[in-house]
Amino acid sequence: NGVQGSSQDNYSLALQGFVWNHSPLNALIVTSYNESWWNPSDLNVTLRAIGQWNDAIAAFASNYSEFSYLSSLRIQPAVSNTSLPGFDIYVGWTEFSLSNVTDEAGLTQIFPSYESIIINCTVELSIKDSHGDMLNQGDMQNIALHELGHSLGLGHSDYSGDVMYAYYTLGSSPELLSTLNVYGVATLFSWEIHSGNFYPISNWLRTSSVTLPSNIMYNRLPVSPENASPQTIADTPAAPIRELIF
Fold this sequence. Notes:
There is one protein chain. Helix 1 (40-63) packs across helix 2 (137-151). Strands 3-2-4-6-5 form a five-stranded mixed beta sheet, with helices on one face. Strands 7-1-9 form a three-stranded antiparallel beta sheet. Strands 8-10 form a two-stranded antiparallel ribbon. It is α/β, with parallel strands linked by helices. It has three helices and ten strands, in the order E-E-H-E-E-E-E-H-E-E-H-E-E.
């Protein structure tokens, strides 16, 4: 269930300025079964994170009728042990932190056209931090949620309790996507209301960040049980608390 927020919250969320020109979006999860460090649970983490985004978008679209156009937006996952052409989002895993200096746990790279349309993007997720410690499934799903937000065109939030905040502390509780997160997505897909007015993008995407309108409170959006982050004793490590960056 969602967590009630306050209408007085004035958190902001940056937008990257690049937009998709279609929906739904097709994501290819590229597995690494030939690697000794690969665990099939890594795939489950990714699928749950995608499902959680789909749950949040659907809930937002049904709760706020002015954003009902989001009901057509989903991330549709496929799985392969090799990269294949024709997908919008490519998700892969790597063994170690993506940076030895900054402890970067995830990296999303967007490849846009000169007209600011997203052609495709890659999401890279690590299963260990820079100290070589394995991330638990809860941490991995939180990080995947964050990076998938970037793949939709979101930047960082200024609220430390939001999934799109730039820093992440290992061992954190399972994250829930917020109304702010999906409102940012709704802003990036608002061309769907009048699809004939997609060009030029600068005519309708006139902001580099969003705050929630007065009629929408900052809430956590619900997630279905099958997409919720697992909460088991094995998934609650006694590892030292460290902060990662996205």
